[in-house]
What does this fold into?
Amino acid sequence: MTQPEAPKIEFPCPDYPIKVVGTAIDNYERIVVDIVRVHAEDCDFERIRVQESSNGRFRSVTLYITATGKEQLVNIHKDLTAHPSVKMVI
It folds into this structure.
């Protein structure tokens, strides 16, 4: 049985969401923002959403960028997952 093909993203893609889940440490949001800002200076930093897990151990940060290409998205993912506090990038 074949897998369905993933939908194609047309670039530039405004309002592209990135959700970053990690350990709830001090300045976690700032760490995520600083990493993303390197690759997406036009990120809408006013729309950032932060959510704590029910037990307070984890925190998710959702932000929106204008995705300009696959290479940009790969580099954001690579740099975020390289940080020890980041557990998952969606």
Observations:
- The mean pLDDT is 93.
- Residues 13-89 form a domain with the Alpha-Beta Plaits fold (CATH 3.30.70.260).
